[in-house]
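ping. complex inputs:
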Amino acid sequence: MDEANGEIYFALRDFRSDFASISCSGPDFVQWVFVNHAIKLLKSSIGLFQTVVQDRDHKFLTRAVEEAYKGVDCGDGGPFGAVVVRNDEVVVSCHNMVLKHTDPTAHAEVTAIREACKKLNQIELADCEIYASCEPCPMCFGAIHLSRIKRLVYGAKAEAAIAIGFDDFIADALRGTGFYQKASMEIKRADGKEAIIAEQVFEKTKAKFQMY
Amino acid sequence: MDEANGEIYFALRDFRSDFASISCSGPDFVQWVFVNHAIKLLKSSIGLFQTVVQDRDHKFLTRAVEEAYKGVDCGDGGPFGAVVVRNDEVVVSCHNMVLKHTDPTAHAEVTAIREACKKLNQIELADCEIYASCEPCPMCFGAIHLSRIKRLVYGAKAEAAIAIGFDDFIADALRGTGFYQKASMEIKRADGKEAIIAEQVFEKTKAKFQMY
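pong. complex structure:
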């Protein structure tokens, strides 16, 4: 961050010094110097912005990783952590609670989304980001999508979790490798009258509930 | 069901009567009559089995559809219901609770899985089936997969829900149409040192927690 600040400082200093020495030049040259320095300044600002983003991403991702360790130490579940952030502040910091809550859906990301929504009293997190210690599984990615979170930053690739024995379907959300095709359960879709009855639910109720 | 029972009755009666009339025939003919009738009996049994399966599927799917209506009537959430069944008995019957619980993950299927696991005090539902009033979205399908449920029966196609305004990502789980590609959020994977730190979590903790 100091490095990027320094770059901006030098870009501004060069800008001022060049402007001082072009007082006797024509307007085209002044314009050229101006554009040239504006580009330099912009580049330095982008550098600063990237450094700031990297610094905050590092901070929150580290927190998610710490949560992953904490979850295992507490015996709450697997080594996964997730942090929901809004306006650079942590809303919730959670870890996997599958064992603690006897709930196979209590992955770190799902838990963090639930807790954040409860805390903020809203069903959408459109102004939030989520930091996950590991690539989210399809269930978690679905939950992230449904909560309208605007940004996901994750640490470990799914392979790191699969390598120690976790279900390889973790990798399927972000790669689109169709985990449903690997499912061993039998899937049956109703047909005929039953399908019609089930589909009528939507038409019959659409005026009665609030869309979300 | 009565019709299939009747078929078995007649198949058995014909079997007995044919056996009575072949007392003076050779062993090849006896064998032929036996095999022929065994096939008939088997066919009738399959018919009975299919009818029984259809009857129970109809019963539980109807219950899931009723839950969908109930959820809207209560104002708890969208028109979706799900029922978890074990040994022909309903373990839990739930509906969408997104609005009631201010929780975007509280879809009917996820809610039913959570409640069933809590009730049975186990994190796997390998001996259970789930009946959903509508095709499960990727999050719910992920949850069903994670809970190891052995059979999924669903009513409405995703299109019926999409037609009244629900997110078209519902259709992506069972068709593998890559909902992640439609996501508008920014996704960033950590690299370098951060990725290593995050991936080390698994190696460093694998001996400390119970795999599930």
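Residues 8 and 44 of chain A are 5 Å apart (CA to CA).
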